[in-house]
Amino acid sequence: MTHGLAVTELREAASPAGALDRASPNAEATEAWLARRERGSRMGIRALLLVTRVLGRRGGRALLRVIIFYFTIFAGPARRASRAWYQRVVGRSSFWTAYRHLLRFAEVALDRVFLVRGELDQFEFDHQGTQLMRSALATGRGAILLGAHFGSFEAMRAAASDAQLPINILAHNANARLIAAFLDEVSGGRSRVRVIEINPQDKTYILEVKQRIDEGELVAVLGDRLGLNDRSTIVEFFGAPARLPSGPYIMASVLRCPVFMVFGTFEPPARYVLRCELLAEQVELPRANREQAINRYAAQFARRVEHYAGAAPDNWFNFYDFWKMPADDQQPQQ
């Protein structure tokens, strides 16, 4: 059963956000698929909770080594994506680099259970720059946390919650209710985290985000994957053009609040380095060169992701061709 949840997590990482939305021809089909996925996710979560209660974190990690070895053998797309990533970033790759990469992802996924349950004493946290975020919140105004599928966003969230910093997670509708289900199931309904659903057909979610920011809360969003019909901008990432969503910067410009880049690097066996860096006190998007301004912010974010992912390539958790795009749209914007 633990194998099933680990495989599900890895398959999610092997698909860019929105891919599953595109597979559904209409809203009814999407809802039906999402309901099935949510039921399956809850079953997997319960299985994982049982395993962690019986084996604990150490036993769960030992079990993952066996599960991920077999997964690496049979999961061709994820293995090939990992090897391509290592070849690009490190200059070499093998079955074993892919195995360690996939194992690192599974270990971080397992840790989410303990982090959500508030069992922070199982981990060591190294805070770097997080006082900047606390200083900003002391003014009474909220802020946006911009992260990536790198390391553990959950570790940063758990540390913020432990410090009594109110945090909200902004996620696309294909993932929002699954995140909420995970937090609810693992915490026993005691999670203090609010999940705000991004609905491309209904922009009223922006009003809720504004309310949270006005009340001095944090809103966390990932800035490295595109959702269905997302606006995007092209930046250079590890020597090649890649698409990043424009949405976080447009939203920040409307809300007129600080934006912090956050990275939670996992260092086995139980250490998380939590970094917080200011992207902008306020995102400015002048009408005359709006797209260029968006691109500058996205490129700055990409450079910091590149910096940390280059130092810890096993913490990069996008197991698909991150650089794939239409053949006629290959150049970073200037």
Descriptive notes:
This protein is of the alpha/beta class and 334 residues long. The chain has one domain (2-315): Glycerol-3-phosphate (1)-acyltransferase, CATH 3.40.1130. It has 11 helices and 9 strands. The strands form 2 sheets. Strands 1-9-8-2-5-3-4 form a 7-stranded mixed sheet, with helices on both faces. Strands 6-7 form a two-stranded antiparallel sheet. It is globular. Mean pLDDT is 83; it is low at 1-7, 17-27 and 29-34.
Features:
globular, 52% helix, single chain, 334 residues, alpha/beta, two-stranded antiparallel ribbon, disordered N terminus
Q: How is the quaternary structure best described?
A: single chain
Separate helix tally: 11
Strand content: 15-25%
CATH level-two architecture: 3-Layer(aba) Sandwich
Mean pLDDT, rounded to whole units?
83
Describe the protein's topology.
Layout: H1 2-13, H2 19-22, H3 27-74, H4 76-89, H5 95-116, E1 124-128, H6 130-137, E2 143-147, H7 153-162, E3 167-172, H8 173-187, E4 194-198, H9 205-214, E5 218-222, E6 232-237, E7 240-245, H10 247-255, E8 259-267, E9 271-280, H11 290-311
Parallel strand pairs: 1-9, 2-5, 2-8, 3-4, 3-5
Antiparallel strand pairs: 6-7, 8-9
